[in-house]
């Protein structure tokens, strides 16, 4: 479904990503991990066509720039202006803008998609609440609902589990399971560690280039972690623990 071939990104002569290649199949939940500054967010933005790049990114065999309507993106919470005066309902309705147009009233189908998405993340009763008045977990669920309302095939999440509550985490994991069962593809930039990584089908270990691409058990070896994180790790009770994450 998603094919990335020899993807490279340079910032003013400095290499942010170098020769990254991988594929992600329908129904896969893939975690993207690596140290701070490894290029994880850069990779996601490159997949969206938001950065100049070298190499090829294809979705269903076609250039990704022609398939943006099939991709849903949930950015890091730190990248969002939570003071912007917009309701939860209108944030989710933005997912339907490409289909209905900027200056047309939402049709019945758009309203149904938005209502179903807000119901799924348990926020329908707060649909008229300003996003700045919501808790961190509720804010994350608003953007998850927006992704669901887009009716996309590929879902890109940038650190979705940062600063959320247990209820939001449970809802998100439930949604991820439903999307996988429906044959959707999910790529998640994660700063998680330890047993939490077992929820992924595969891990992509990145540090400007792709260091490992395999099951969590095969990727999380001492050799791979040292290649990715260098000396910034510790051994405690036989387990690997990094000093910093994503």
Automatic annotation (TrEMBL):
Keyword match Transport: yes
UniProtKB keywords: ATP-binding, Nucleotide-binding, Transport
Residue stretches making up the ABC transporter domain: 2-233
A matching Pfam family: ABC_tran
Alphabetized Gene3D superfamilies for the sequence: P-loop containing nucleotide triphosphate hydrolases (3.40.50.300)
Annotated GO MF terms: ATP binding; ATP hydrolysis activity
Keyword field contains Amino-acid biosynthesis: no
Family designation: Belongs to the ABC transporter superfamily.
Name this protein carries in UniProt: ABC transporter ATP-binding protein
Organism: Leptolyngbya sp. NK1-12
Taxonomic lineage: Bacteria, Bacillati, Cyanobacteriota, Cyanophyceae, Leptolyngbyales
